[in-house]
Amino acid sequence: MSDKTSKKRKTTLIICIDRDNDFGEKAGIEGPIIGKKANIFAANKLALADAEDSDVNALFKAIQTYTELKKKDRVEIITLTGDKRVGMESDHEITRQLDIVLEKYYAEEAILISDGAEDEYILPIIRTKIKMIYPKRVIIKQSQKLESTYYMIFEFIRKILNDSKASRFFVGIPAIALLIYAVFGAAGGRIILGTIGLYLFIKGFQLESTVEKITKEFMTSLRIRKSSFFMYLVGFVFFIIGAFNGYSRVTSINEADILYTTVNFIHTSIIFFFFAALFFGWGNILGRKKNKLPQYISYLSITFSVALVTFIVTNFILSQPPIFTITDFMLNQGPSYIIDVVCSIIIGGVLLTISSIIETLEKKKSRVRSGA
User: Of 122, 150, 178, which residue constitutes the final position of a domain?
Assistant: First the structure.
């Protein structure tokens, strides 16, 4: 032990923590507050300024503890005040004041009197300077679990606001949802639910990589391939028009049957969705060094065939009454609709066959060029 340390009196410190500096802000008293008289004066002054402040109760409990131990041991009572900016600033100030006290008193143990979980947050810092700490919490007209829960929630919110990624998720997204609801009213609720459903669909089927690839392609076309970006934009416009037409259709019929409503939506939107797919595919081949025209013809053939068959089949379903028999169907308009469906399938098959032949021939030409 150094000479400087040996000259200090070995003392048990009774420490009261005011992390948010209520003594300074409300009573105008700066820390550290050392000694029984100074702490009684500080407690009375804070009680007159704010009788409901829990720091008053904690300090009076510290004074009571000091009085009880003074008869047996060498003790001293001190109050350390922090800063209204609770966190790094307040903890630095408490550490500074504790260093001032330890310059005067040699203490290997201390009793920490606090009014809740927030003051006890400083415990690890005090333990780096004093070996043995006996924390004691004072609860006056409040629930210990409730206060601890409150402080945990407070810390959680503070960390979220300081973390840019977490704040975008926990604060930014709810803010956007509230703005959508405020602008669109009841329809905004459907938009919000639809967005949540789309997000859960992507997560549930693990389509994150696909969405990321589409977003990357869109941003690349915006920066480099301007013509592709224009085609993507036109395709997106067609998709929005199709979705809007389908939505307008199903809201106007007021039909409770979900199958009938879904078929109406598809039948009204399928043509616009086809043109959207047409422009999306066109934008994909523009600006590419490699010749993708045969693949685009195959893509166009498949898209057209699917759109044609879907339109004919949905038109057939919508033209029938809710309940009908095979006999009624065959006697009325069955044959004509069967012919339409069969013709659409044949047309789609012919187009796919032609596109497959073109793609095969192009692949053979490519192999011949590479071999040459």
Answer: 150
